[in-house]
Amino acid sequence: MNSEPDTREPDTREPDTPESDTPESDIKDWTWTLTRRCEQCGLSAGEIPVDEVPERAFVAAEEWVAILRSSPAVGARPTPGVWSPLEYGAHVRDVYRLFDQRIAAMVTEQVPTFANWDQGEAAVVGRYAELDSDVVAAELETAAVAFVDRLRSLEPRQRERRGRRSDGREFTVASLSRYLLHDVIHHLWDVTGQPDATTSLELG
Ligand SMILES: [Zn+2]
Question: Which of 51, 55, 112, 169 could anchor a disulfide with 165, C-beta 3.0 to 4.6 Å?
């Protein structure tokens, strides 16, 4: 029996997600979220002004920290095949870390190709399910602050620097940071069922 959890949601909650193999691999194509609103979490990542991305990425991280510190029960999976909030939180921590590294590479190298990141393998190797939720909360916050600080340190022209995923898909710093934002907010929806609170803000 495969004890590896999947992150699939019931079909009723993903009317038009292209595919939801489990756990998500880096190859899974979530890039559509950059061009249209995600009906699940409610975020229109592609419409978020690039200047707002750092603040929103920080606010989302603070929500994650609050969830991880809310109760020891965050380590419990809602069903055996779905990640616990702790496991999602560890994944989100690693997303902030990884995307910080990727953006650093995009700024310093000519169109770097990112090594593939197998998210399911990362969860197993990183023993997400066995981690201490308070430790993950602190690490997530540190990772998010580093990511946000890096974004804020960039010159406007550096947001157009490019990088390529191992599947050939090209990103700019701007689109990759929006991609991150959707990822961390979408996973908030995964664990809370609440659409992104910040989507009610006026979008210029
Ligand atoms: Zn979403």
Answer: 169
